[in-house]
Amino acid sequence: MEEALIAQARTWLAEDPDPETRDELAALIEAGAHEEIAARFAGTLQFGTAGLRGELGAGPMRMNRAVVIRAAAGLAAYLKKQGHSAATGGTVVIGYDARHKSADFARDTAAVMVGAGLKAALLPRPLPTPVLAFAIRHLGAVAGIEVTASHNPPRDNGYKVYLGDGSQIVPPADAEIAAEIAAIASLNDVPRPDAGWDTLREEDVVGAYLRRTDAVLTGGSPRDVRVVYTPMHGVGRSVLTAAFDRAGFPAPTVVAAQAEPDPDFPTVAFPNPEEPGAMDLAFATAREAVARGENVDIVIANDPDADRCAVAVPAPDTVEGWRMLRGDEVGALLATHLVHKSARGTFATTIVSSSLLSRIAGAAAGAGYEETLTGFKWLSRVDGLRYAYEEALGYCVDPAGVRDKDGITAALLVAELAAELKEKGRTLTDLLDDLAVEHGLHATDQLSVRVEDLSLIAAAMRRLREAPPVVLAGLHVVSAEDLSKGTESLPPTDGLRYALAGDEAGTVSGARVIVRPSGTEPKLKCYLEVVVPVASAAGLADARVRASEVLAAVKTDLARAAGI
Ligand SMILES: O=P([O-])(O)O[C@H]1O[C@H](COP(=O)(O)O)[C@@H](O)[C@H](O)[C@H]1O
Ligand SMILES: [Mg+2]
Predict the structure, then answer these.
(1) Is the pTM of this model over 0.80?
(2) Average pLDDT over residues 485-496
(3) Closest Cα to residue 553, out of 445, 473, 470?
(4) Ligand 1 centroid from CA 390, angstroms
């Protein structure tokens, strides 16, 4: 058994083109680190919520040049079977972020595509994922790849794969590509020429992307809004500030220590605006600006590949002075803004996001509503899509330009909305209050548990399947669905959904819980929503207190039921 494992590791090592991972694996073999080697050879990285994602390191369960070359070769084989080739103009466009090895992985991908008889075009420098997603359709490419692990820890990298429709791959294409990857017997069979791909000009991609952002805003709408901005050590800054400038907004104040791309993300524990503490420096920058006598209306953050957008609003009664809006809150605000602008078409969100969007769309004549599984790979495919958002801080406000979430255009639209409200002496918070009075308070929260040992997640899911909760926070579970069987409108996914009835006193009209393993990180995620009726603005404060109580109690009871 051990001998077979070592033989497998040696075969891998002999073909690995990267001296760093070769040395790493050689040292593990030398040290007899069998457990560690076994973990790296336990299978191969699989396409998850957003492509391949994993820790950097040697072996098929890690992100490295050998894994990337295989993935690229598998995608190339798939594209060739679809009839694409250089002769038919089949171009694969390749972007990358500023993480460790991202540029190497991008270059390897270009070489493999050219070696396979396709055309390849590299983006000119580390750029946001939405710029790559835009470039695919803008250039008429047959596929696109962004080398990124988004907001994951510094030791991770990843590979987002798009086809010519500009959307990330879903079944069955992902399984078909995976089968092509699995069919590659040896890396030695994958030709990788040293040249032959194009490097796109800044003007042709970033320039074109920026011109497209004009479609997001209404000409002549207010622009007076003061923003503190952080790209969180990622690649968002240059494009976001250029977009703000082009639109006529005042230049955002950029968080200096996080302004430049840095693959080590030195000032944050996790470069994810959703994680506690990630916004601390941005809030400190905002407080300093205010202390200097400047105005700051909102704080905006992009995640490191700039496809997410986080927004914070002044909260004078808190220690930080700022409150992060939840993705569901920003999602509802942007939907309301678009409805006011008379945008029509389908408004879509995911099953783990707030149901408030269905209320907003339902109240707008001519607006449709749809729900999909988690991930923009699903949302971007909705027919007649006008707007999509997900609770994980992702927004697609211009599906004709970018069929994916886009943290740059979302920031533009948030800024326009804040400026319009400001002109009327109002704020984003005021608009959220209006929505709660009109539709009921839709309060959401997430219980997310990071694990070292992935089997803990499977165990929690098993426990819930064996003994589904019947009451949570005193509210009766009126339906418990196992989503792994699929539903009438949803393909199968590993998830559980509970609908809860309201309480007898009528202080809660209903609640909903979904539990699923993350497809991008070793986490179990539980998404909670509680709806509390609000009779008038005067009742809002009490409604918020009630919602927080119920959310907290659901969390406690659910954690107990799941044994996490
Ligand atoms: O990493 P990003 O910013 O691309 O975001 C990715 O991961 C998020 C979380 O997915 P999960 O809950 O499976 O971890 C998804 O919601 C999103 O659509 C996907 O693109
Ligand atoms: Mg991202």
Answers:
(1) yes
(2) 95
(3) 473
(4) 9
